[in-house]
Design goal:
It is built from two helices and four strands, in the order ββββαα. The protein is about 20% helix and about 15% strand. It is an alpha+beta fold. The strands form two sheets. A two-stranded antiparallel ribbon has the order 1-2. Strands 3-4 form a two-stranded antiparallel ribbon. The protein is globular, with a radius of gyration of 13 Å. It has one domain: Herpes Virus-1, CATH 3.30.40.10.
């Protein structure tokens, strides 16, 4: 699925998004996301890979919930919300 991000862009590198649709690390849109915790806090794929590279996939940086690195998924709801967001 290709989602156009044009409508979210305010200026170079700046997005205007509801909080639950943005990455908790870089604040970019969660098009390709990884859900970290049972509270469904999510980061984008790029941030997730960076976190994993630094061995930081242990607890959610928002709620401090433990991250089960063997049981991660992406949120289809977030992707759908982004797709429908006007
Ligand atoms: Zn990110
Ligand atoms: Zn969390």
């Amino acid at each position: 699925m290709v989602i156009s991000l044009d409508r979210f862009i305010l200026a170079e590198g700046q997005f205007e998004l509801p909080k639950h649709l943005e990455c908790i690390v870089c604040l970019g849109p969660l098009v390709d996301n990884v859900v970290l915790c049972k509270n469904e806090h999510a980061v984008c794929r790029g941030c997730f890979e960076a976190m994993r590279g630094r061995g930081m996939v242990k607890q959610c940086s928002l709620c401090m919930e433990k991250i089960d690195a063997n049981n991660l998924s992406s949120s289809k709801v977030i992707i759908r919300a982004l797709d429908e967001y006007e």
